[in-house]
UniProtKB/TrEMBL annotation:
<dbReference type="InterPro" id="IPR036979">
    <property type="entry name" value="CM_dom_sf"/>
</dbReference>
<keyword id="KW-0413">Isomerase</keyword>
<protein>
    <recommendedName>
        <fullName>chorismate mutase</fullName>
        <ecNumber>5.4.99.5</ecNumber>
    </recommendedName>
</protein>
<feature type="domain" description="Chorismate mutase">
    <location>
        <begin position="13"/>
        <end position="114"/>
    </location>
</feature>
<keyword id="KW-0732">Signal</keyword>
<dbReference type="InterPro" id="IPR008240">
    <property type="entry name" value="Chorismate_mutase_periplasmic"/>
</dbReference>
<dbReference type="InterPro" id="IPR036263">
    <property type="entry name" value="Chorismate_II_sf"/>
</dbReference>
<dbReference type="InterPro" id="IPR051331">
    <property type="entry name" value="Chorismate_mutase-related"/>
</dbReference>
<dbReference type="GO" id="GO:0004106">
    <property type="term" value="F:chorismate mutase activity"/>
</dbReference>
<dbReference type="GO" id="GO:0009697">
    <property type="term" value="P:salicylic acid biosynthetic process"/>
</dbReference>
<dbReference type="GO" id="GO:0046417">
    <property type="term" value="P:chorismate metabolic process"/>
</dbReference>
<comment type="pathway">
    <text>Metabolic intermediate biosynthesis; prephenate biosynthesis; prephenate from chorismate: step 1/1.</text>
</comment>
<dbReference type="Pfam" id="PF01817">
    <property type="entry name" value="CM_2"/>
</dbReference>
<dbReference type="InterPro" id="IPR002701">
    <property type="entry name" value="CM_II_prokaryot"/>
</dbReference>
Length: 196
């Protein structure tokens, strides 16, 4: 990651709040076994990768005047995901919902990092990555995510989806050593995965 492991009190408090409101809960004392390589595990892992890339997005935009909220760019990302879903023979509407959540999760990380850097300028990354390069990485993850959603169609509609997704989310957190902020963002990325 491009930032120090140290998190400001405000960012930690925000992450704690998000953990309780993100839509996927892990109850106290809940034992969750590591999932096998399931389609939902792949969805969770790719979503975790995507929230980690948010650090680079924040570093690229911070101090440049580029807004965190970019409706035009967001519309392109969602439209691309819908086209890929259609090409794979799956309903694009649920995929669009999932990608809206993915985008909002990315912004959770960006906002927290902006607040942290505003509070302590010594934490601002010293190098500014290329937003164009980062978007290529996000597009690659996005294409893989649409394929993973297509592969998970049966699981997404199964009664056990929430439980499987919770296990996959916890596993992805540990596999990628996500801190509280990035775990909160991961939870924000996933509430639309399981069908209603």
């Amino acid at each position: 990651m491009l930032i120090n492991a140290k998190r400001s009190t405000a960012a930690a408090a925000g992450a704690a709040l998000l953990l309780t409101t993100a839509g996927i809960g892990i109850g106290a004392g809940t034992a969750v076994a590591a999932p096998r390589a399931t389609p939902l595990a792949t969805v969770a892992e790719l979503s975790a990768q995507r929230v980690e890339v948010a650090d680079q997005v924040a570093a690229a935009k911070y101090g440049t005047g580029s807004p965190i909220d970019d409706p035009a760019r967001e519309a392109i990302v969602i439209a691309d995901a819908e086209q890929q879903a259609t090409a794979l023979g799956i309903d694009p509407a649920p995929v669009a919902k999932i990608f809206r959540d993915q985008i909002e999760a990315n912004k959770v990380v960006q906002r927290a990092l902006y607040a942290e850097w505003d509070a302590d300028p010594s934490l601002i990354p010293t190098t500014k990555p290329s937003l164009a390069t980062i978007r290529v990485e996000l597009n690659t993850i996005g294409a893989e995510l649409v394929q993973a959603i297509a592969a998970a169609e049966t699981s997404i509609h199964a009664p056990s989806c929430e439980g499987q997704l919770t296990a996959a989310t916890v596993h992805a957190r540990h596999e990628q050593s996500l801190d509280a902020l990035h775990y909160a963002a991961l939870l924000r990325a996933l509430p639309s995965v399981c069908a209603d």
